[in-house]
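R.M. (postdoc): so does anyone remember the format we settled on? I'll just put the structure tokens first.
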């Protein structure tokens, strides 16, 4: 009886570890996909900021760029297994 319980516990621990690894892998894949999209948005916002003549519109495009950079940093931290960045609203 004791041996079967130990074996069953060992199997459950392996399943938990596998499940955790699969969730981590999926989270990293989602981070990668999101980061690629935000890089595109950031590149567009950067070009838009440079091209705009109107200071108010230029400032708004700059806000988009700043926010995209915050998301990119948070995704990088997640990818590097660091503590997640808190998203704070910062009014310019």
């Amino acid at each position: 009886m004791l041996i079967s319980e130990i074996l069953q516990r060992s199997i459950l621990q392996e399943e938990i570890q596998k499940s955790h690894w699969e969730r981590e892998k999926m989270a990293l894949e989602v981070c990668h996909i999101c980061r690629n999209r935000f890089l595109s948005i950031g590149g567009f916002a950067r070009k838009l900021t440079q091209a705009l003549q109107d200071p108010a519109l230029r400032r708004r495009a700059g806000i988009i760029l700043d926010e995209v950079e915050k998301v990119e940093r948070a995704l990088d931290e997640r990818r590097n297994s660091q503590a997640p960045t808190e998203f704070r609203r910062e009014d310019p």
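R.M.: ...and that's the designed sequence above, right after the tokens. Also worth knowing: Residues 51 and 61 are 10 Å apart (CA to CA). The longest helix spans residues 2-51.
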